[in-house]
Design goal:
Elements (H helix, E strand, L loop, with lengths): L4 E5 L5 H17 L8 E2 L7 H10 L4 E6 L6 H17 L4 E4 L7 H13 L7 E6 L5 H18 L3 E5 L7 H10 L5 E5 L6 H13 L4 E2 L7 H15 L17
Parallel strand pairs: 1-2, 1-3, 3-4, 5-6, 5-7, 7-8
Helix pairs in contact: 1-8, 2-3, 6-7
């Protein structure tokens, strides 16, 4: 057997967020029927990643692969998740938990986001705001800015980034940037995995700045997102010692 896959999302007080994550995990299961897959969350939603990992260990698993369902490599990926994994490994002797790369700025996810833009009514002469969470980590914000620059070149339209928190420009400033470049109609792209409080904040600010704004949906449960999760998983499995793959069959749990 290969190690179980534990996708971990941030978690949210908004139930739509957890529901979307669970829907995405169902897509992952459908694409990898030979892999045990257990959704988890860092905070605010259940089950917590630490509880999932402890339960897998109690069942006899001695390795697992955690895939962060995060679109940027910032505090949660660099600090929070490694600390939680270290906590579990300290309690569970011989349990090797391998954490994959974040989903990040993946070409397949860009495809999904661009399709969402088209679905929102993107047309010639429009301007695009790429909305993202924002971070105190400059590198994570720069990755979104690079994404916006790449889309501008590919779409041949004005594109700028905007952040929900912790970074600039915010949505009103981004809309003002586009207006200064002669854009009359603004479409907001969602660089978010799921609906929730921050995407709602983006939408509210966008409507305040421009009543006619068009809003694209988050990436959601698109099969291409599920395939990206599995690519991160398989990349991490390559780093798991072969002897750890030969685990006895254990009873699944829900």
């Amino acid at each position: 057997m290969t190690p179980p896959l534990v996708p971990v999302a941030h978690g949210s007080r908004d139930p739509r967020s957890a529901a979307t994550v669970r829907g995405l995990v169902e897509r992952v299961r459908a694409q990898a029927a030979d892999v045990e897959v257990y959704e988890s969350f860092l905070d605010l939603s259940e089950p917590r990643v630490t509880d999932v990992l402890r339960r897998l260990y109690a069942q006899g698993h001695r390795s697992a692969v955690v895939v962060p369902l995060l679109l940027g490599s910032a505090f949660h990926a660099r600090v929070d998740l490694p600390a939680l994994v270290a906590e579990v490994q300290g309690e569970c002797p011989g349990f090797d938990v391998h954490v994959s790369d974040v989903l990040g700025v993946d070409a397949a996810l860009e495809e999904v986001a661009l399709d969402r833009l088209t679905g929102a009514g993107l047309g010639p002469g429009d301007g695009v705001v790429v909305s993202a969470v924002g971070s105190s980590n400059a590198g994570a914000n720069a990755a979104v800015a690079d994404l916006a620059a790449r889309w501008e070149a590919d779409l041949d339209l004005p594109v700028t980034e905007a952040f929900a928190s912790a970074a600039q420009p915010d949505v009103p400033a981004a809309v003002a940037r586009l207006r200064a470049r002669g854009v009359r109609r603004v479409v907001v792209a969602s660089w978010f995995l799921a609906p929730g409080l921050l995407p709602d904040r983006i939408a509210a600010l966008a409507r305040e700045a421009d009543r006619g704004v068009f809003l694209a949906e988050p990436l959601g449960t698109d099969p291409r997102v599920a395939a990206a999760v599995l690519r991160r998983y398989h990349g991490a499995v390559l780093r798991v010692p072969a002897q750890q793959h030969d685990l006895p069959k254990v009873n699944s749990w829900s």
